[in-house]
């Protein structure tokens, strides 16, 4: 709350004038982060979101930097596992990222850049699973430095490969 007060210049009372409780405030923050992630997906793909998560500049304090999405994703993951009421509330809000990923993959497929032997819905689920795995990896405090080549492999795995006839 202190960081939010500093970032917005609002008092705790003013913040809670707009949100009934911390849960509603967190849902709004998570929804905003998901929206910004969906914008990146629409332009550059879900793998770019993952690259942004691991590219946190040392000492960055910018709350709108994609590295802060990690904290939100970690808390969403934790609450989804432990809080049935949160799960129901989040389900209403969480489709934007999936929809953006599916739309991006469909555009890539139509442009002939995406492998055509796997359905777009399967590729969407695959990339979302990789995102959740990356979030889990980072949550355990494991190195982000080695993830660049892994994400290169993930990206390559969904691309269409032309045969060299």
From TrEMBL:
The GO terms this record gives for MF are:
DNA binding
* The keyword Transcription regulation is assigned to this record: yes
- Matching Gene3D superfamilies: Tetracycline Repressor, domain 2
Superkingdom in the source lineage: Bacteria
The record's keywords, sorted A to Z, are: DNA-binding, Transcription, Transcription regulation
Keyword match Nucleotidyltransferase: no
Q: What InterPro entries does the record point to?
A: Homeodomain-like_sf (IPR009057), HTH_TetR (IPR001647), Tet_transcr_reg_TetR-rel_C_sf (IPR036271)
Question: Which parts of the sequence belong to the HTH tetR-type domain?
Answer: 1-37
Record-given protein name: Transcriptional regulator, TetR family
Q: Tell me the organism.
A: Actinoalloteichus hymeniacidonis
UniProt lineage: Bacteria, Bacillati, Actinomycetota, Actinomycetes, Pseudonocardiales
